[in-house]
């Protein structure tokens, strides 16, 4: 069985990518299973999705603990412990990174046990679609290529899955063309699907009774959302061009997360530790004084403290 | 592969669509909402002839469902978790009216604390309501079980409502290949609903569910519900044979997996039974003679089929994905009760509680389960309830407790 685990941020298209690969495999006569996992989902929050491909009925369900391939739509997720991007990754695992850095650069920056390949899908999307948006078709094409699915089935799967989301035929075709490019461009790493180590039996730990101050789901710590720095959720950051700002306060009003404060002379200050990069301020600014700049690994990227 | 990739939720909607239901009162709740969305879309664009009505709560939804069913309409609805509990008092009324509707429950663990992921305390709370219960393992089984549920429910020997259960996330949002039965063949399997005891005609008034004080009359009618439910075992077998003839898939009230020479048997239900089967395969590779019994029909309780599958085994482990506080696993109690009189009952009966709130059951935990069960079988004494919960999970829990507590007031 091939097991592909996708990690992305809400809105990037990890779930749809898992479906594109599932449908493509199904079209090629495999048994396939795909499923997403998320909590109270929000744009930018960590999302994972899973595709399993086999010749026989699939007995596993839910999270993939031992992936053949891990597809990372946003490398900032690696440093977020809650995203668990590297869980179950061993020296056989193929790791695909959507990154402007090369596989070699990534391998030196982050110590990874898997075998890394990379392609800058966000740049492909910016070039081809001219805007920021979901990269599900590109993620699906890359994952499909890495597990050896045919380009034609990926093409057809993109058509089905994006039509299911209600996208216009012209948009679907644009995605198919860009996906074709990524399918051909991604450096392929051969899969090693031999038998893996069988895990021993897990040590169970039955909790003891504890007083209700500990034994009930109760939060006493105040203002703890400050501790959850969500700056890493951004793939793009809003940046102020001071000369253009007319001090209208609209960005302050529209910011859904309250991370914009105003100076005494009516200029916005953005709290990048918590700005999730939704770009509503960029959208609403009447003088285009706020612009979106892509977060780049190793330079401007925000990292968790 | 034939069929198409679809989620358990879409498979549930297809079940209602192919059953040609008349009326769908609805109230949305995660993870059930997609079922209602799909049905609403099909009714809107004319692919289905039903009437979908969004209600102000699950309590109203169930009232409307039962009342519509009492007029002779074929009714479908779906809910989950807190929604099922909100509808609760109506469940007993609807079964008392002997209205054979089908309700899908998408399992989700109950608050508090609140979560979205599944366990079976929601659906098992309804086990005494008079509804029949069929619990599905796969998306295909969701669709097929809804068609079978209508046929069994509408059987004159039964005339009771049915809950078809599927796990949230693990089936509801999971796509796998599903073959869609031919609508013409479904019509052959499921003839139009023409109940003799229900209906609504001018100048022929009925009162349903009337007051009966004194106890003896009440006893008679509630006992009728019990007999009707027991009749569903036979009705299920007939429906399963006919379903297999038409569609080539055979369902039992229970399903055995690698039971032939099994010493130790794990008992499970719902989607995690797939993982249990994989664990049986892994245990077999290490030389353990392990097998699995999946309970598909929970009400009526298929005692004979369970006894046939479990007598003579060394040890039986019931893995309950539910917890009755102060008691333990719900299904463990029922398995124990139906094996008590068997001279060849298993040497050890073990109770495990796993997958609460959708918690994954890892390969290592299944391994521990098989090891402890085998040891209990050798000792001849059962264990439990044992919570499947690991050292690693507990250390994460401890960290969260520190975060949640915050700094101590005096800074100590």
Please tell me how large the radius of gyration of chain A is: 21 Å
Q: Structural class per helix/strand content of chain B?
A: alpha/beta
- Cα shape of chain B: globular
Instruction: Determine the mean pLDDT of chain B.
Output: 96
Which spans of chain A have pLDDT < 50 for at least 5 consecutive residues? Answer: 298-305
Intertermini distance of chain B: 64 Å
Report the CATH topology name of the largest domain in chain A.
Pyruvate-ferredoxin Oxidoreductase, domain 3
Going by CATH, the architecture of the largest domain in chain A would be 3-Layer(aba) Sandwich
CATH homologous superfamily name of the largest domain in chain B?
Thiamin diphosphate (ThDP)-binding fold, Pyr/PP domains
Largest interface: A-B, 42 and 46 residues
The CATH topology of the largest domain in chain B turns out to be: Rossmann fold
The structure class of chain A reads alpha/beta
Q: State the order of secondary-structure elements of chain A, H for helix, E for strand.
A: EHEEEEHEHHHHHEHEEHE
The CATH class of the largest domain in chain A, by name, is: Alpha Beta
Could you estimate the helical fraction of the residues of chain B in percent?
Answer: 40-55%
Could you tell me the radius of gyration of chain B in angstroms? Answer: 22 Å
The structural domain count of chain B equals 2
What labels would you give this structure?
heterodimer, A: 305 residues, alpha/beta, Pyruvate-ferredoxin Oxidoreductase, domain 3, Alpha-Beta Plaits, six-stranded mixed sheet, two-stranded antiparallel ribbon, 10 strands, globular, disordered C terminus, B: 412 residues, Rossmann fold, 2 domains, five-stranded mixed sheet, 14 helices, 15 strands, 42% helix, 17% strand
What does this structure look like?
The complex is a heterodimer of chains A (305) and B (412). Chain A is of the alpha/beta class and 305 residues long. Helix content of chain A is 28%, strand content 18%. Chain A has a 6-stranded mixed beta sheet, sandwiched between helices. A two-stranded antiparallel ribbon of chain A has the order 7-10. In chain A, α1 packs across α5 (151-164). Chain A is globular. Mean pLDDT of chain A is 90; it is low at 298-305. Chain B has 412 residues and is α/β, with parallel strands linked by helices. Chain B has 2 domains: 4-198 and 206-247, Thiamin diphosphate (ThDP)-binding fold, Pyr/PP domains (Rossmann fold, 3-Layer(aba) Sandwich), CATH 3.40.50.970; 255-394, 3-Layer(aba) Sandwich (Rossmann fold). Chain B is built from 14 helices and 15 strands. Chain B has helices spanning 8-18, 33-44, 58-70, 81-86, 88-96, 121-125, 139-153, 183-189, 216-247, 272-285, 303-310, 330-339, 363-379, 391-405; strands at 4-7, 23-26, 51-54, 76-79, 102-107, 132-135, 162-167, 175-178, 254-257, 264-268, 290-295, 297-299, 315-320, 348-353, 386-387. A 6-stranded mixed beta sheet of chain B has the order 9-11-10-13-14-15, with helices on both faces. A 5-stranded mixed beta sheet of chain B has the order 4-5-7-6-12, with helices on both faces. Chain B has a two-stranded antiparallel sheet with strand order 1-8. The radius of gyration of chain B is 22 Å and the shape is globular. Chain B starts with a strand and ends in a 7-residue tail after the last helix. The A-B interface holds A 19, 22-23, 26, 29-37, 39-40, 58-63, 65, 198-207, 213-214, 217-222, 224, 227 and B 1, 4-5, 112-113, 116, 169-170, 173-177, 271-272, 274-275, 277-278, 281-282, 286, 358, 360, 362-365, 367-368, 371, 386-391, 393-394, 397, 401, 403-407.
